[in-house]
Amino acid sequence: MDLDIVFASDLEIVFKVKGIPARVSDFGLRGMARVVLKPLISQIPLVGGIQVYFLKAPEIDYTLGGVAGTLEIPGLNKIVERIIIEQVKNFIVLPNKFSMPLVDTIPNKVLKCPDSAGVLRVKLMRASDLVNKDGFA
Q1: Which residues contact 82 (CB under 8 A, 6 or more apart)?
Q2: Is-contact 49 41, C-beta < 8 A?
Q3: 36, 51 in Cβ contact below 8 A?
Q4: Among 4, 13, 58, 100, which has the highest number of CB atoms less than 10 A from its own CB?
């Protein structure tokens, strides 16, 4: 199932960038998350685990504070934004998934590495009038 998520937090993270103290606060996140409940099992809770992930990177909002926020150092906001987005992508944007087993009998690898649904084989039959973009003849 797909869920529209809006998350607002009053968290506060204090850090230094090249020796300049900075703070990220009032973190917010908005995006479409996919929740997968699987595998189906015969006892309660009826599903063995849960997977949560975003198909594309969510929108992120935050307040940059500390000395870095008051001085508005050029480029610092972009550096912090890039780091935050990269960390969110590494954690929960496809192909990365947050998965958690709900029962002890389901190993976590079943949720992280599901069986493939099938194989797609493509056989290129013919091509013409292609532009040489890679520089090879």
Answers
A1: none
A2: no
A3: yes
A4: 58
